[in-house]
């Protein structure tokens, strides 16, 4: 058995291979918020499924049925350029709980095909369904798969092919983390984004800051401190809490009388002017060490989430000012990088001036 | 504040409430208990290890000096027979609430119902005032399309069986039934017996995988909390004073909604299931926090929360009294938000005496002095 799936970017994605390795489950969980427990009821994918990801960048995820071999299909010839011409990354899903030798062999031939004609495509291998496997065993599998692929590639004279490996499961945050890494590689001028977040963390004494795509909970950038799964989890769950509250209390229209009463005496101001910030902002103080977590909406798709150090809660007003500046910077960043191929935009960004404190 | 003094006069001393949790072995009683009272997540396998042997007694400290005496009764047949024979008086006397759990997937419905009927007979015999909550559990295993139908069907069956059980006890020993039922139920008519008993029987469809469990338990708890009407009145006056749209009062460990108040505008909220949903959201958030900080699951995980969604709405949650958290949802506006926070803090003493050990009348009098900031202070925009 084997499998693979693919996906993503700039506009397109692709993939291939056979059998239920969990490709459709992945896209349902990540892009359609299906609870992992319900992926059992998914039917097998019979044709290429395209999902658009409406976000700060346009992404499309193409889910390829595993049964079709697109490189060697006697009945049908695929238009390779249409499929791979604009794709940014190919995600290949391997079922870690199954015999993966055939999948690895097919992956190898796929990489060889792609490397010849489309060398810019990142190959991302998800070693999937690792929940339930022991840590040691997971690493063994990863090592085994890595060696098999690299050996084969170097036998064929291919060096430095852009192949990356991720251990994933839909039952925890690892699948979101892996997707985050895949997407980040496709973002133009990611370094600039990271520098802004690092700067913010240093100035405001944040422990960790993430820029989230709210709909998918993929993070598209973080500061330069070491990766830390635990802080990603809590930030991502915080985004969930906010989304749920917003749905329950913020998604239905209030009556006219309600608005009139609130804008009347003694307030005598339109509601829009009574609020300090037109975007969502939120904070929560954890009981342990009184560490605050904050969230600030950047635009319709993105939110900045940060874990602060102990005792920062008292400095919230100053922190909010700094966050405002960074959010403005981020907005400009996306303004500039939006049309593809604008070069030199980043200089105009410089670094936003932060209030030191 | 005469209101609070009057409120205090209504306080009643509450004794322990005996709660029986019963149902067939493997129907999910203990895992449900762990999720509600010990903050396990549904997916944590530790929440449901092994079968409960005999009766697992636990005391759950709850709001307002209430202690729930939870009797988790192992459901294997041998135990069941034992409860109904040797331990009959011991188990079924002084019961406040019986929670009976049916597994919807069970293959032997007839037998389940027969056991249920014997339990009900014993209950009516020893504690005829007890409230009965029947949870039709594991509903997640039924296809979503047919869930309602399956539940309605099973619920009707359970109602009928309950009525029959009561009628039989009534026939044999008429003195066991409440006077009113006696008067209205002529000799053998079972259907009218069912209407007599219905105020004491409530049915819920539940699953540990969604908020339905919180809905059922919130109703169970709701009837047990002492001084609830006082709490509700006070919550309403607080809500009006701060212009809130909705106020929810959560019990601290289980995060069940114990009391709520909603303004006329808030009533327009299309999400009827929002209360159990809030419990569910906050409970899993607590779990995330405990995982992150490495503190015990039952420890307090957050103290303050605020969320302002532009010009749509604002909300905040904070630790309120010893055993409660309060969540306030209100219209947008910085000044309004800040004064509401201050007023909620000022209202704490109003609620404090309703929670925790019953205090003396003098202490309550002292509390009455600390009122809200005046209406004027609330109403002045800071510009």
From TrEMBL, chain A:
Catalytic activities: GTP + H2O = GDP + phosphate + H(+)
- Looking at the UniProt record for this protein, which Gene Ontology cellular component terms does it annotate, in alphabetical order? endomembrane system; fungal-type vacuole membrane; Gtr1-Gtr2 GTPase complex; nucleus
Q: What is its main location?
A: membrane
Where composition is biased (Acidic residues), the residues are: 1-12
Q: InterPro entries from the entry? A: Gtr1_RagA, P-loop_NTPase, RagC/D
**UniProt record similarity statement:** Belongs to the GTR/RAG GTP-binding protein family.
The identity of this protein, by name, is GTP-binding protein
From TrEMBL, chain B:
Keyword Cytoplasm listed? The answer is yes
* GO molecular function list: GTP binding; GTPase activity
UniProt KW Nucleotide-binding keyword: yes
Which subcellular locations apply to this protein? Cytoplasm
A single Pfam family it belongs to is Gtr1_RagA
**InterPro entries from the UniProt entry:** Gtr1_RagA, P-loop_NTPase, RagA/B
Q: Could you tell me the keywords of this UniProt record?
A: Cytoplasm, GTP-binding, Nucleotide-binding
Family per record: Belongs to the GTR/RAG GTP-binding protein family.
PANTHER family, per database record: RAS-RELATED GTP BINDING RAG/GTR YEAST (PTHR11259), RAS-RELATED GTP-BINDING PROTEIN (PTHR11259:SF1)
State how it assembles. Component of the GSE complex.
Q: According to its UniProt entry, what is the function of this protein?
A: GTPase involved in activation of the TORC1 signaling pathway, which promotes growth and represses autophagy in nutrient-rich conditions.
Q: Return the protein name.
A: GTP-binding protein
Which organism does this record belong to?
A: Staphylotrichum longicolle
């Amino acid at each position: 058995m084997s499998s693979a799936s693919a996906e993503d970017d700039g506009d397109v994605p692709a993939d291939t291979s056979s059998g239920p390795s969990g490709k459709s489950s992945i896209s349902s969980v990540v892009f359609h918020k299906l609870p992992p427990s319900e992926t059992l009821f998914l039917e097998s994918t019979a044709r290429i499924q395209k999902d658009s990801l409406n976000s700060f960048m346009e992404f499309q995820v193409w889910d390829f049925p595993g049964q079709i071999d697109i490189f060697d299909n006697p009945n049908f010839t695929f238009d390779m350029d249409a499929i791979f011409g604009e794709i940014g990354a190919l995600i290949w899903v391997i079922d870690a709980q199954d015999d993966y030798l055939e999948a690895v062999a097919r992956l190898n031939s796929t990489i060889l095909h792609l490397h010849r004609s489309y060398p810019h495509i990142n190959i991302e291998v998800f070693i999937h369904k690792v929940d339930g496997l022991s840590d040691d065993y997971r690493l063994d599998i990863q090592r085994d798969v890595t060696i098999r692929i690299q050996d084969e590639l170097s036998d064929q004279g291919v060096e430095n092919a852009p192949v990356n490996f991720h251990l994933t499961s839909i039952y925890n945050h690892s699948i979101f983390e892996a997707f985050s890494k895949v997407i980040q590689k496709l973002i133009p001028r990611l370094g600039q984004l990271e520098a802004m977040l690092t700067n913010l963390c240093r100035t405001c004494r944040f422990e960790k800051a993430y820029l989230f795509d709210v709909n998918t909970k993929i993070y598209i950038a973080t500061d330069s401190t070491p990766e830390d799964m635990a802080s990603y989890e809590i930030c991502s769950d915080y985004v969930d809490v906010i989304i749920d509250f917003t749905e329950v209390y913020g998604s239905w229209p209030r009556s006219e009388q309600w608005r009139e009463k609130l804008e009347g005496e003694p307030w005598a101001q339109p509601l829009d002017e009574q609020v300090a910030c037109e975007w969502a902002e939120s904070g929560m103080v954890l009981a342990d060490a009184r560490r605050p977590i904050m969230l600030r909406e950047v635009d319709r798709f993105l939110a900045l989430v940060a874990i602060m150090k102990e005792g920062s809660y008292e400095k919230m007003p100053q922190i909010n000012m700094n966050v405002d500046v960074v959010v403005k910077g981020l907005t400009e960043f996306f303004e500039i990088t939006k049309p593809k191929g604008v070069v030199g935009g980043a200089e105009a960004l410089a670094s936003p001036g932060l209030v030191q404190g | 504040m005469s209101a609070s003094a009057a409120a205090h006069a209504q306080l009643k001393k509450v004794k322990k409430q005996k709660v029986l949790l019963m149902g067939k072995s493997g129907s999910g009683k203990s895992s449900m208990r762990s999720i509600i009272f010990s903050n396990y997540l549904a997916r944590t396998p530790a929440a449901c290890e092994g079968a409960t042997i005999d009766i697992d007694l636990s005391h759950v400290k709850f709001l307002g000096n209430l202690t729930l005496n939870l009797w988790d009764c192992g459901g294997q047949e041998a135990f069941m027979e034992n409860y109904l024979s040797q331990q009959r008086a011991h188990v079924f006397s002084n019961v406040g609430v019986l929670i009976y759990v049916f597994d919807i997937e069970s293959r032997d419905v007839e037998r389940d119902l027969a056991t249920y009927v014997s339990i009900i007979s014993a209950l009516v015999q020893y504690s005829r005032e007890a409230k009965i909550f029947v949870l039709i559990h594991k509903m997640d295993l039924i296809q979503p399309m047919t869930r309602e139908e399956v539940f309605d069907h099973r619920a009707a069956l359970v109602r009928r069986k309950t009525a029959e059980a009561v009628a039989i006890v009534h026939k044999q020993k008429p003195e066991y039934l409440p006077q009113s039922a006696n008067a209205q139920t002529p000799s053998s008519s079972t259907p009218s017996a069912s209407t007599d008993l219905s105020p004491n029987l409530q049915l819920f469809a539940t699953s540990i995988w969604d908020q339905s469990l919180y809905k059922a338990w919130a109703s169970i708890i709701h009837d047990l909390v002492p001084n609830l009407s006082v709490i509700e009145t006070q919550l309403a006056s607080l809500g009006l004073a701060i212009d809130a749209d909705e106020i929810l009062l959560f019990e601290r460990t289980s995060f069940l909604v114990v009391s709520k108040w909603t303004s006329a505008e808030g009533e327009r909220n299309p999400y009827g299931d929002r209360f159990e949903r809030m419990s569910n959201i906050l409970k899993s958030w607590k779990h995330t926090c405990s995982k992150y900080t490495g503190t015990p699951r039952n420890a307090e995980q957050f103290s303050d929360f605020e969320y302002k969604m532009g010009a749509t709405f604002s909300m905040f949650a904070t630790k309120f009294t010893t055993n409660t958290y309060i969540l306030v949802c209100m219209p947008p506006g910085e000044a309004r938000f800040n004064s509401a926070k201050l007023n909620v803090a000022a209202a704490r003493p109003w609620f404090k005496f309703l929670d925790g050990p019953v205090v003396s009348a003098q202490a309550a009098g002292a509390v009455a002095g600390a009122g809200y900031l005046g209406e004027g202070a609330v109403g002045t925009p800071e510009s």
